[in-house]
């Protein structure tokens, strides 16, 4: 080559070398080249280039994570292109961010996801804050509307939201419990006159339930103790947390044939009294047994017929439902407190079961 | 009947068993399949990202999302930020205060995270809540990184003394205490990670509490102090070797107070003084930016001004000034690094401008402001230009801004002087206050345009 040719070629080669590009492949298959300094702003791409040495040519394009399609990639690159320039003031960056973030929520979510997969933390923070601002101050219906969330919680679940999903052992135990209760009811029908025995039967069922709570509060091994002897159960009952005591005590109070109760303040008051005073264990236990005795008196006076059986079934049903959650009233209170006082009404449903209603305007 | 009830009863339980789930949700399945097409991005986001989003909301708002749908049920309990605030009506209602107390305890119990990023609590206090120790124990044992406590109370109510566990938190990086807190430090403080400390309008048990606290922070970089008169301290000893940013504001009062600063690597100083402060500033030679605002500029401020001599950016505001005796100031301390100077002047003291022009040889930007509070009261000074033109006017001053320009004689003289002598001036920016009517503005502009300009490149901007 003559010198003139070299002189002509050189500048072009120089300009290409000066500005190096990185090749990126998005999830939808398209391959594009991006200026190096812009692409390297993303930690993930930076990592790929440095550690694996790919991205320098079309054949060895860096394949981006699945969540990054070409439309989102162009948005991300816009962001990177602006922010990788060092000389910008904080004010400039802030105003760019504010304009950048104006997009519909669907796109915002996709952008969050994509930025997260590229490990671009500043952008993740920016989009997360924007999404938080969208959620802030809205009612649940509005939020569900905006994000198209399914309203798949039952009324009860809304009231008792905190549960574990692996409940098989509990279901099994409750089945056993329920079967036991069924048996006891049948026995009661036969042995109506023997009061002492009935009391003993009922005591046992309380122990069952209490130890079940106790087993839940402890570890899974506790569940196996349901078969243990009465004495052990008693001892264990006395050692359990006051919280379990209170919930049982409160359950009994509710089950004492109350049709409509203004629950929150009252119940809350009692449970609060018990939170810090561990010495109240014995007092609470006595209360449980005494209130249970009240219930027994009531039962004995009634005629034993299907109505009573239904009532008892319903009570156990209600009872077991509450057993599954550690903090039914508390959650209720939390939800009701969070929006000033909203009373919880207990009232009888159409079919006669005891139902707990919360204010329908819960968030 | 029994079996029906039994099934019904089972349906009320949360299910891992999908078969039972189907029965439960049968009516809802049809709906969700319709909506499946519309399932949006946020549902596809992993839990970690949703927690990140919820961490920007207050805990009450985050908690409220738990009833949105099944998926959102437990998410709020894994957010590593607890940000709780009570309502203003708690100030007068003791039962509401009690409810809030228990609410906080329950939130702490329900939150599942082993490590907390932030625990922020703002509440009204009349009597010390019984659970306070528990809250702080829990937060500290969960390696909390940022603790932000604000208590609304009044002087007649007791202030909250934090349990000592807070002062031995190994992972705490940011500690902010405001209002109704009393700093009561009795033992050895150990805060090995604390970088940012804000003590805003709090009370102190004694001077030693503060010094013990500072002694236990070995990597402290930022300190913000807002102090008021009757907070039980007579001396503020900021002797922190690692401090980079210091912001102090003293509220109005007459009591004497001593401020001692010994911070060898301090870069940014923001000081607002309304008290009778005595300054004792050792070594602040590394200072880059200083913003000082005083009500009454007096001789006691001279050590402070001397200490600012190494700064690049200085901003000085004062409302009143008394005659200052500048012994030995000029020859020894030149503001060699000063690049930008901002003077906001109140009822006089424009001679300070001459002083500063003389001692700052490398000044590039000069901003003069007539203090908003003191405008137009006629207490102006007679400003006379020096015989020797200051070095900076000749060689470095490029930009002058004059805010709050009024049609007053000495201001005209100032502008005229600068325009005449500033050789490398590029821009003179004059901003009047809005009071002047349009015609007089035009007149002023004409007058200004008439002044001779030493620098040919000088532009005049008038607002």
Can you give a write-up of this model?
The complex is a heterodimer of chains A (363) and B (463). With 363 residues, chain A is mainly alpha-helical. Chain A has 18 helices and 5 strands. Residues 161-171, 197-201, 216-303, 338-350 and 352-363 of chain A have low confidence and may be disordered. Chain B has a 15-stranded parallel sheet, with helices on one face. A 3-stranded parallel sheet of chain B has the order 4-6-8. Chain B has a 3-stranded parallel sheet with strand order 10-12-14. Chain B is 28% helix and 25% strand. Chain B is α/β, with parallel strands linked by helices. The interface between A and B is large, with 66 and 61 residues.
Described by strand count, sense and barrel closure, the largest sheet of chain B is: 15 strands, parallel
Low confidence ranges of chain B:
1-38
Instruction: Estimate the mean pLDDT confidence of chain B.
Output: 82
Q: List the strand order in the largest sheet of chain B.
A: 1-2-3-5-7-9-11-13-15-16-17-18-19-20-21
Major beta sheet of chain A, specifics? 3 strands, mixed
Give the fraction of residues assigned to helices of chain A: 55-70%
Secondary-structure map with pairings?
The complex is a heterodimer of chains A (363) and B (463).
Chain A: H1 3-18, E1 21-25, E2 31-35, H2 36-39, H3 43-52, E3 62-63, H4 70-83, H5 90-100, H6 105-117, H7 121-135, H8 140-147, H9 155-159, H10 168-190, H11 195-217, H12 221-224, H13 230-239, H14 242-255, H15 264-275, H16 281-301, H17 306-323, H18 328-337, E4 345-348, E5 354-357
Parallel strand pairs in A: 1-3
Antiparallel strand pairs in A: 1-2, 4-5
Helix pairs in contact in A: 4-6, 6-7, 10-11, 10-17, 11-13, 14-15, 14-16
Chain B: H1 2-11, H2 18-36, H3 41-44, H4 47-54, H5 59-64, E1 81-85, H6 94-110, E2 118-124, H7 132-141, E3 146-152, E4 160-161, E5 174-179, E6 181-183, E7 196-200, E8 203-204, H8 207-215, E9 222-227, E10 235-238, E11 245-250, E12 256-261, E13 268-273, E14 276-281, E15 289-297, H9 302-307, E16 313-321, E17 340-345, H10 351-359, E18 365-370, H11 391-395, E19 399-405, H12 409-421, E20 427-432, H13 438-450, E21 459-462
Parallel strand pairs in B: 1-2, 2-3, 3-5, 4-6, 5-7, 6-8, 7-9, 9-11, 10-12, 11-13, 12-14, 13-15, 15-16, 16-17, 17-18, 18-19, 19-20, 20-21
């Amino acid at each position: 080559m003559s010198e003139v040719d070299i002189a002509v070629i050189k500048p072009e080669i120089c300009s290409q070398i000066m500005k190096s590009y990185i090749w990126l492949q998005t999830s939808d298959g398209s391959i594009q080249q991006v200026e190096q300094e812009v692409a390297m702003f993303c930690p993930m791409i930076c990592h790929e280039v440095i550690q694996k040495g790919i991205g320098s040519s079309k054949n060895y394009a860096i394949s981006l994570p699945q969540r990054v399609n070409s439309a989102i990639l162009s948005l991300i690159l816009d962001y990177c292109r602006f922010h990788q320039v060092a000389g910008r003031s904080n004010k400039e960056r802030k105003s760019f961010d504010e304009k950048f973030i104006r997009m519909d929520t669907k796109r915002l979510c996709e952008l969050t996801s994509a930025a997260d997969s590229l490990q671009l933390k500043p952008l993740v923070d920016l989009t997360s804050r924007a999404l938080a601002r969208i959620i802030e101050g809205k009612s649940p219906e509005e939020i569900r509307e905006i994000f198209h969330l399914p309203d798949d919680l039952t009324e009860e679940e809304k009231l008792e939201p905190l549960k574990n999903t692996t409940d098989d052992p509990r279901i099994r135990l409750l089945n056993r419990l329920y079967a036991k209760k069924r048996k006891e009811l049948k026995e009661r029908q036969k042995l109506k006159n023997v009061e002492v025995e009935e009391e003993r039967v009922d005591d046992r069922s309380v122990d069952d339930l209490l130890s079940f709570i106790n087993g839940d509060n402890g570890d899974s091994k506790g569940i196996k103790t349901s078969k243990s002897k009465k004495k052990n159960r008693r001892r264990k009952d006395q050692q359990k947390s006051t919280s379990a005591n209170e919930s049982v005590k409160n359950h009994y109070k509710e089950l004492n044939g109350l049709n409509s109760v203004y629950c929150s303040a009252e119940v809350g008051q009692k449970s609060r009294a018990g939170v810090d005073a561990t010495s109240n264990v014995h007092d609470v236990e006595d209360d449980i047994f005494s209130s249970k005795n009240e219930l027994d008196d009531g039962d004995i006076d009634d005629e034993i017929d299907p109505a009573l059986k239904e009532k008892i079934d319903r009570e156990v049903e209600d009872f077991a439902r509450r057993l599954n959650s550690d903090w039914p009233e508390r959650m209720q209170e939390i939800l009701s407190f969070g929006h000033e006082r909203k009373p919880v009404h207990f009232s009888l449903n159409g079919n006669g079961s005891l139902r707990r209603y919360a204010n329908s305007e819960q968030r | 009947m029994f079996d029906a009830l039994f099934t019904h009863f089972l349906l009320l339980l949360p299910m891992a068993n999908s078969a039972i789930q189907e029965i439960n949700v049968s009516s809802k399945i049809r709906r969700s399949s319709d909506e499946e097409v519309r399932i949006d991005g946020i549902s596809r986001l992993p839990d970690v990202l949703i927690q990140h989003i919820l961490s920007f909301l207050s805990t009450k708002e985050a908690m409220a999302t738990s009833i949105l749908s099944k998926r959102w049920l437990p998410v709020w309990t894994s957010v590593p930020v607890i940000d709780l605030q009570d309502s203003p009506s708690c100030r007068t209602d003791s039962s509401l205060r009690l409810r809030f107390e228990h609410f906080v305890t329950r939130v702490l119990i329900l939150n599942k995270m082993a490590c907390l990023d932030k625990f922020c609590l703002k509440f009204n206090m009349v009597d010390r809540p019984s659970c306070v120790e528990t809250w702080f124990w829990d937060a500290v044992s969960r390696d909390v990184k940022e603790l932000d406590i604000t208590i609304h109370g009044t002087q007649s109510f007791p202030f909250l003394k934090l349990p000592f566990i807070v002062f031995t938190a190994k992972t705490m990086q940011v500690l902010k205490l405001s209002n109704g807190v009393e700093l009561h430090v009795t033992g050895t403080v150990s805060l090995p990670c604390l970088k940012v400390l804000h003590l805003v309008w709090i009370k102190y048990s004694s001077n030693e509490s503060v010094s013990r606290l500072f002694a236990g922070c070995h990597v402290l970089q930022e300190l913000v102090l807002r102090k008021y008169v009757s907070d039980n301290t007579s001396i503020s000893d900021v002797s922190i070797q690692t401090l980079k940013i210091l912001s102090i504001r003293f509220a109005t009062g007459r009591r004497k107070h001593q401020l001692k600063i010994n911070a060898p690597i301090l870069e940014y100083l923001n000081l607002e003084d309304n008290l009778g402060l005595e300054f004792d500033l050792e070594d602040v030679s590394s200072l880059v930016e200083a913003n000082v605002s005083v009500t009454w500029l007096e001789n006691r401020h001279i050590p402070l001004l001397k200490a600012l001599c190494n700064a690049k950016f200085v901003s000085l505001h004062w409302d009143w000034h008394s005659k200052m005796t500048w012994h030995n100031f000029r020859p020894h301390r030149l503001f060699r690094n000063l690049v930008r100077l901002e003077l906001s002047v109140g009822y006089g003291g424009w001679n300070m401008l001459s002083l500063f022009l003389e001692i700052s040889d490398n000044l590039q930007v000069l901003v003069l402001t007539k203090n908003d509070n003191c405008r137009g009261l006629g207490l102006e000074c007679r400003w006379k230009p020096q015989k020797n033109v200051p070095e900076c006017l000749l060689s470095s001053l490029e930009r002058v801004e004059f805010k709050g320009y009024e049609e007053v004689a000495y201001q005209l003289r100032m502008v005229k002087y600068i325009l005449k002598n500033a050789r490398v001036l590029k821009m003179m920016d004059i901003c009047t206050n809005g009071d002047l009517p349009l015609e007089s503005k035009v007149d002023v502009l004409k007058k200004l345009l008439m002044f001779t300009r030493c620098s040919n490149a000088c532009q005049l901007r008038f607002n």
